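[agent] plan:
  1. take the single chain provided in the ticket
  2. run structure prediction with default settings
  3. attach structure tokens to the ticket
  4. add a short note for the reviewer (M.T.)
[agent] executing step 1
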Amino acid sequence: MPKIFYYMRFHKRESIFLCILQAVRRAVQVVLQLLMMKTFAEALKGDFQGFLLWSAISLLVWGVFYLLGILLGYVQLDTIRKLNHRVRQDMLHSIWIKPQQVFREKDRGEYISQLTNHVQQIETLAWKPFFDGIGDVAYILWCMVSLAFIDWILLAASLVTAVIMWVLPKYFERKIERVSEESAQAMERGTSETKDMVFGLDILRSFGSKFFFMKKGEEASDHMEGPHARMKYTRGIISDMLGFFSVALQVFSMVLIFLLALYGRIPLAVIATGSNLYAGVSNGLSRMADFKVCFTASKPYFHQIEKESSNGKEKKETLLPLQHSIQLKNVSYGYGDRHILENLQLTIGKNQKIAIVGPSGSGKTTLLKCIMGWLQDYEGEILWDGKNMRQYGEEDIQREMALISQDVYLFHRTIRENLTLGEDFSEDAIQRAVEASALTEVIERKPLGLEAMVGEEGSQLSGGEKQRVAIARALLHNRSILLVDEGTSALDRENANKIEEALLRQKGITLLLISHHLTEERKKEFDGVYGLKSSSQ
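[agent] step 2 finished; step 3 output follows
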């Protein structure tokens, strides 16, 4: 419950207004019960005119009740939409601040699951039950007030019912929390497996592996549906048990009201209304008990958000722009028992252009990831103007650097949006970046130019065209340090030469470039060439 209030404080006015609407509508519902009692009393007296009058008033109040329902439905949907948006914002923030190495420890399908399935579960198990619960609390209180006016014995009986229906759910909380946690974990795993199958569809098709595709898809579905079904089944059992107790208490109330009427404590006209009001208390408390079960089931999802948000909160020092050099002192890195980098010694001066060469598997990409801060568990030191880079946050480091890799990811947006990433740049700045990356020809071939969509993951562009977009993006964002990991590998020799020349001419940047096809003449244009050896050599 406290986590629910944490999110509601961001939309305080909407939440309070929604709660007031719930209370008002339920008050009208109780008024309708009392009007029914009055109408029934007029019928028993044989007063046809009085009967018609109170029937007309009841009809008018019913109209108010349903109009309030329309307004309530709109406000509730709008408020829940805003709350869901806030939850997703927290999830996205927790992903953003997560260290790259920690981020990659979890499959991306699990993050997708959190942003979709988890938010839907929170809506089902927290927001809707909370606001509906507020309405039920109001209804219970209005019913109790009405019962107190009819006879204090009915009020006392309703209070006993309230205590019973409030205490009962506590016996089931631990069980429902456990199965809900299992369901949340299974949903993440199943989403990850489904994503894996969909992303790998082209490979499976090329080998005609339909059986494997269907089999793995079925397994992913089982992983998602099994625990989810168990959670629903458990909640259903608990709900049915609470429902039985609610019915038993209503039967008791009917007997009690009949006896009170039999002994003349209450008029006959009250029998139907009194039973309905008591049922309102009993049924409302039964729903409240079910809502408590829902809140318990929502805890694992809120705990997951809290847990994810706690990663990456460590305060880091502010990184100042590079003044002198980046130094690597005795840097070593390995994957398991295999050592990739061993005791590297390298100095990269400000605005220098350094080429990194070496055979496949020699650790060139790993070296760039260490400098970028994506890998933190290396041995030795990487110094930024003499200070250990581990004391700086990844976000600060990446404001100074840009990585251009051979595996380019483009968003399903326009070329312009993939270049600017939501920031404002002048047309001149965009044009300079386009020309320096040999992207002009690509844009001119597109009828919409910069406004052309690139397709999902850049499917409307070739590998070389995607690399040119990535290079233009890095140049446009004016990072002081460019790390290029085979960033021209998918280009023909002519365009690769153009881009390499453009990068070497950039006077205000420090360049660290990995390439397999640097000519001896090109190597001479760099300030230094650093060679890595394969770990097997």
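[agent] step 4 note for reviewer: The longest helix spans residues 210-262.
[agent] ticket updated
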